[in-house]
Amino acid sequence: MSDTSASELPYAARDGRLSYAIFQLARAHRAHAAAMLRALNLHPGQELLLMQLFDRDGQTQGELLERVGLDHSTVSKSLRRMQEAGLLTREPAPHDRRVMVVSLTDAGRALQEPIADMWRTLEQISVRDLTPDQVDAFTECARTIEKSVRGHGRETPAG
């Protein structure tokens, strides 16, 4: 991974320095996380679904969709792969056969500590050159930017 200084910033991104930095950071972070997940035989995003089930097993597919903020097709494909891998089961809900309830298997539950360790290691790598105050400030800024971006999508366009 190479560093991109302000002078290496693509011309078209000159007025989007922060956005370009976020893109570069997200890409590098996701690539490193993906490599760590491969060691657990998982694809990116699957650990997010598992973490939700570790906290509350037996959620509906719709509840998981809402909690992880991914689109329906991505979640459906991930859950299918995870079911095929023996990590979870999907069964119709007793109250409505169209609703699928997702539950962990023993193999899925066994990934709780390895996933927690992976996230802990990723965090240590991510913050190794930052002070605790910088971590707090970055986290606050990231949440503010996320809120702004998500909120912009809900605004009614002028005109």
Could you spell the SSE succession in H and E letters?
HHEHHEEHHH
Mean pLDDT over all positions: 91
Query: How many whole angstroms does the radius of gyration measure?
Result: 19 Å
Strand content: 5-15%
Please tally the helical runs, counting DSSP H or I stretches of 4 or more residues.
Answer: 7
DSSP strand count: 3
> How is the quaternary structure best described?
single chain
Characterise this structure.
The chain is mainly alpha-helical and 159 residues long. Helix content is 60%, strand content 11%. The protein contains seven helices and three strands; from the N terminus they run ααβααββααα. It has helices at residues 17-38, 46-55, 61-68, 72-84, 106-109, 112-127, 132-154; strands at 59-60, 88-93, 96-104. It has a three-stranded antiparallel sheet. Strand 2 and strand 3 (96-104) form a beta hairpin. Helix 1 (17-38) runs antiparallel to helix 6 (112-127). It is globular and about 55 Å long. The termini are far apart. 11% of the residues are buried.
Task: List the keywords.
mainly alpha; 159 residues; globular; three-stranded antiparallel β-sheet; single chain; 11% strand; 60% helix
Short description:
By secondary structure, this protein is mainly alpha-helical.
